[in-house]
């Protein structure tokens, strides 16, 4: 598994996500199916596990899975990188994280993110929330802190006043949504990209009948003896991004890990980028008070 440096800590570059596709909503009970899938993912080689608080309702499942992994497979807590997010109390990350740690049955998380910027009405509100995030890092409740779905307009207030800049911005990113201005801003401040929806060009756009990348992805897949999914993931990894994926079948998990067995040539990465810039598609968080389809930032 390739690694990425987050705030001086090494983390697996490919994370197994327990987000929207697993959403139960609220603070429901533990799902045996989710627990067993987490254990299957760890057994397949995924040791970066990504979840969120009450909005998806999977923190309890992850907490149970970690305990069972410790007892059944002798997997130590220190060998697993846990990411969770403040989704339900964006103005009070301190209270939100304490509740998350109870559900996860943990003393700390490796990475804690503010899930989205949409609840903040002013720059001062964002700055106040980030000051709480810095305090949580200082107390050791989160080894690293970051954000998710933040745009330049949301990040600049943090950069202007922070003691510790966001280590990560987790966001939808793929060849049809390259976020060039945003990624440049983040590079200048040492904030890493972790992309979710890396397979959107195949899973969503192909279904709509628009296939600008399809032929080239298949050509590269044949050359490297992997799937077109692997080519899209490798494009992200080669750019230094982390990637969040999910799956319910063990065979798919093993397939995704093949993305770490090869590298694209520079001219192949550039061609994927060039073709992708000719077509725009945003899949997630589109709607009132969030993003518009046309928003490329």
How would you sum up the global shape?
A: globular
Tally of contiguous helical segments? 11
What is the CA-based Rg, rounded? 18 Å
Main beta-sheet strand count, sense and barrel state = 8 strands, parallel, barrel
**Biggest sheet: strands side by side, in what order?**
3-4-5-6-7-8-9-10
Helix content: 40-55%
CATH superfamily of the domain at 9-198 and 236-250: NADP-dependent oxidoreductase domain
CATH architecture of the domain at 9-198 and 236-250: Alpha-Beta Barrel
Mean pLDDT over all positions: 94
Number of strands: 10
Structural class: alpha/beta
Series of H and E elements: EEEHEHEHEHEHEHEHHHEHH
Question: Stretches where pLDDT falls below 50 for ≥5 residues?
Answer: none
Distance from first to last alpha carbon: 30 Å
**What is the CATH class designation of the domain at 9-198 and 236-250?**
Alpha Beta
Beta content comes to 15-25%
Q: Which fold name fills CATH's third level, the topology of the domain at 9-198 and 236-250? A: TIM Barrel
Catalytic activity: xylitol + NADP(+) = D-xylose + NADPH + H(+); xylitol + NAD(+) = D-xylose + NADH + H(+)
Active site: 56
InterPro entries: AKR (IPR020471), Aldo/ket_reductase_CS (IPR018170), NAD(P)_OxRdtase_dom_sf (IPR036812), NADP_OxRdtase_dom (IPR023210)
EC number: 1.1.1.307
């Amino acid at each position: 598994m390739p690694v990425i440096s987050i705030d001086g800590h090494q983390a697996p570059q490919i994370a197994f996500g327990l987000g929207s596709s697993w959403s139960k909503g609220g603070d429901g009970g533990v799902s045996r199916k989710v627990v067993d899938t987490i254990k299957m993912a760890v057994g397949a080689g995924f040791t970066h596990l990504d979840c969120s608080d009450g909005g998806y309702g999977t923190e309890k499942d992850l907490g149970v899975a970690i305990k069972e992994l410790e007892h059944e497979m002798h997997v130590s807590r220190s060998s697993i990188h846990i990411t969770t997010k403040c989704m339900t109390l964006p103005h009070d990350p301190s209270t939100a994280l304490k509740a998350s740690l109870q559900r996860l049955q943990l003393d700390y998380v490796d990475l804690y993110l503010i899930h989205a910027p949409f609840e903040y009405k002013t720059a001062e509100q964002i700055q106040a929330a980030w000051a709480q995030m810095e305090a949580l890092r200082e107390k050791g409740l989160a080894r690293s802190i970051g954000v998710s779905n933040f745009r330049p307009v949301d990040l600049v207030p943090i950069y202007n006043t922070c003691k510790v800049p966001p280590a990560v911005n987790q966001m939808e990113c793929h060849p049809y949504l390259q976020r060039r201005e945003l990624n440049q801003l983040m590079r200048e401040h040492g904030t890493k990209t972790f992309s979710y929806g890396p397979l959107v060009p195949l899973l969503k756009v192909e279904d709509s009948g628009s296939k600008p990348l399809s032929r080239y992805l298949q050509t590269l897949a044949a050359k490297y003896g992997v799937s077109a999914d692997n080519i899209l993931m490798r494009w992200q990894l080669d750019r230094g991004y982390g990637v969040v994926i999910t799956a319910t079948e063990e065979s798919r998990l093993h397939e995704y890990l093949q993305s770490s067995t090869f590298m694209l040539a520079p001219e192949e990465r550039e061609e994927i980028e060039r073709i992708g810039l000719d077509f725009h598609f945003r899949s997630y968080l589109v709607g009132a008070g969030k993003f518009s389809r046309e928003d490329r930032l």
